[in-house]
Amino acid sequence: CEVSVWDSDEPVPRCDLLKRVEGVHGLLCMLSDRIDTEVLDAAGPNLKVISTLSVGFDHLAIDELRKRGIRLGYTPDVLTDATAELTVALLLATARRLPEGIQEVKSGGWSSWKPLWLCGYGLSGSTVGVLGLGRIGLAIAQRLKPFGVKRLLYTGRHPKPHAQEVDGEYVPLDTLLCESDFVVVSCALTPDTCGLCDKAFFSKMKTTAVFINTSRGAVVNQDDLFEALSIGQIAAAGLDVTSPEPLPTDHPLLTLTNCVILPHIGSATYSTRATMAKLSANNLLAGLTRDAMPSSFVMIDGQRGVYYSETWKPNGGTLYLPVSGGVLANMAKYDQISFEQGCFCIGDAMGRFQNKAQGQAVHCWRYSVVEKKLFIALTYFFTNFQVFQEVLHALECL
C-alpha cells in the first residue's frame, strides 16, 4: 500500500484532513476525527473502507457509510478489561475521596487524626447499579463483586443471561436509582441514552450515592449533574468522559471537590492501545483486499447492529441483536435474536427462545418474506462472513 501518515499525536486539522483524503481507498481514523459527509465527499468514490481506532462510532456518519457501501472496522472487546479496571479505580478514588486526600497532603492540610475527616463510602455491603450490562458493564461487575458488594442491579432493554455470572438483578431504571449506593453508567450512546442522566435522574438517587460515568459524555446533562452535586442531591461523581472533550478548564464541574474528572483514559494501557492499533491496521488491510475484517461494524436497514466475525466464537457465549423498528417492526413481541450454542434463535425478554435451527437453515415461517430473508442472511453471517455480506447486498438489506 501507499500510505500517507499524519505523524503527530495531535488530531489532524480539518483543512489538512479534507485535502489528504482525496482519492484514498482506505482511511484509518481516531475518535477525535469527525468523519462526516464533507470528508466522504472529499475522499470521493475510491474510498471503500474506514477503520477507526476506537470502540465508539459517534464520530462517524454511519448512515452515509451504509448508503455509499463503505465498510467499517472498529476495535471492540480489546479494551474491555482496561476500561473496566479504570472504572473501578475511578469509583474507588471518588468514593474514598482520594484526590482530596492527595491535595491535603500537598497543601499542608493534613494535621492530626480526626474522626470524620475525609470519610467516604465503601463497597462492602453496598448495592451497585449498572446501566448497560454489556461486555464492559459485565467486566466492571465482575471486578466489583469481590469487594463485598451485597446486591448487583442492572437495567437495559432486556435481561441478560450472562447476568447470572455476577448474581445480577434486572430491575427498572427507577428502582436501580432509588436503591443503589453506586450508579455506574456503561451504556452505548444512542438517541435513547443521550442526556439520560438529567435532573430527574439524579433526583431519584440516594443523597449518599456515588455516580460514575465511563461510557460517553453526552449521556449526562452536565449542568444538572453540577446542580445535583452542589446541593447535595448526590454525594459524589467520577467521570472519565465529558461533553465536550477536552472539558474547558473553567467548567463549573472542575470547581467541585466531590467531582473527579479524568481525561478519557479508559483504554490507556500500553498493551491495550497496541492491540487496538494492530486490530485497526488489520481491519483496514482486510477491507482493502475485500476479505473478512477481524472486527467489523454492520448496519442493517438503518438499525445499528454490532456483529463479530472472527473474534467471537459461537460456542463461547450468546450474542444479542436488539429487535425493534425498521424491517423488524412486525416482531414487537420479540426482544432479541441470538446465536446460542450453535443455534440461531429468536427470543423474548425472558430469554425464551423459539424457532431454533442448526447451521444455515432458519425456520421462520411465521414471519414476513423480508423478515425471513433477514434471518437467513444473519444465519449466513454466523457461518461465513463473506457469504453474509453477499446475501445482504443481494437482499438490499445493507
Automatic annotation (TrEMBL):
Pfam families: 2-Hacid_dh (PF00389), 2-Hacid_dh_C (PF02826). The keyword Ribosomal protein does not apply. Signal peptide: none annotated. Residues 88-266 form the D-isomer specific 2-hydroxyacid dehydrogenase NAD-binding domain. Residues 2-294 form the D-isomer specific 2-hydroxyacid dehydrogenase catalytic domain. Belongs to the D-isomer specific 2-hydroxyacid dehydrogenase family. This is Glyoxylate reductase/hydroxypyruvate reductase. It comes from Electrophorus voltai. The lineage of its organism: Eukaryota, Metazoa, Chordata, Craniata, Vertebrata.
